[in-house]
Amino acid sequence: MRGCDRILSGHRTASVRERLADLAAVDYEGLDDRPDFYGGGPVAALERRVAGLLGKPDAVFFPTGTMAQQVALRCWAERTGNRTVALHPLGHLEVHERKAYQTLTGLRGVWATTEPRQPTAQEVRDLDEPFGTLLVELPLRDAGFLLPTWDELNALVAAARSRGAKVHFDGARLWESVFHLGRDLPTVAGLADSVYVSLYKTLGGLSGALLAGAEDFTAQARAWRHRYGGQLFQQWPAALAALGGLDRELPRLPEYVAHARTVAAALAELPGARVFPHVPHTHQFQLWLPGPATALNAAVLALAEQQKTWFANVFTDRSPGLAMTEMTVAAPALEWTAADVTAAGLALLELAAGAPG
């Protein structure tokens, strides 16, 4: 991928030297001051900025989103007296974190639906047992980066509140979700009692996450962050990288989301292709092509070697005869026309047809 001249999905991975140069170029007025010391410095500046962007009174920096969300759910469980969390079985906490919220934090999950979509307000309202917190992943990544409509999201939140529950947004990719919802970040975040956002999945930072909410909530979250081992001595590189990402990537997200629709439409024209959702809700979506995945992955590498073109990341077999990959339309893809996308896709399928096996 680093050797390719054109990239359709994702970003070229930077070298350590390039990362260091990026950090030095961040517009942060305190570069001549001392760095953070268990907080403060660029970490505090980042917390203030993200809290302002989300319209929340305060925000707390965490080294990982896994830790941030465990702390958020633990705080709400203590306040509501109910350790049950309503969430989706395809959500990040269930699929990608080894069920840490259960194993480490002692919480229990219930599912409003097992369908590969966002839950409905009626499903939340009809849950057959009490729950203290509703967790909503925006977008629901493993279902195809799916979002509800603005009215559906409002109804979902109202249904949780009618059950006496708190609402937490897993907003790892909230930054790019606002366009489909048709509202700005403070309006969307304002629906939830707490919001988690990632600092690297969209912003291109090094690592880290922010947990935002009311000041009494963030004070409690800071105490639990310390207990979980998340109060690191210094985290200024991650904070600076995130500040740079806010400056660089946030203004470009409307372009990414709009161009994703062009890319998705062109990919949908390939023989045997399926794009889901048909009109992407964000700048990410699923692409399904005739498999097997081994042949498609071999073709991706062959296309990179022969044409210096990076088409997509790893394909996985998902159903008989079809393999799926997640497409991310970012800055490198903006130079691609629909015709470029189609031509590269056809070349990929031709190489896959000739791959061993």
UniProtKB/TrEMBL annotation:
Pfam families: Beta_elim_lyase. Its cofactor is pyridoxal 5'-phosphate. One of its GO terms (molecular function) is L-allo-threonine aldolase activity. Residues 38-278 form the Aromatic amino acid beta-eliminating lyase/threonine aldolase domain. The keyword Iron-sulfur does not apply. It comes from the Bacteria. GO terms for biological process: glycine biosynthetic process; L-threonine catabolic process. Keywords: Pyridoxal phosphate. The keyword Protease does not apply. InterPro entries: ArAA_b-elim_lyase/Thr_aldolase, PyrdxlP-dep_Trfase, PyrdxlP-dep_Trfase_major, PyrdxlP-dep_Trfase_small. GO terms for cellular component: cytosol. Gene3D superfamilies: Aspartate Aminotransferase, domain 1 (3.90.1150.10), Type I PLP-dependent aspartate aminotransferase-like (Major domain) (3.40.640.10). Belongs to the threonine aldolase family. This is Threonine aldolase.
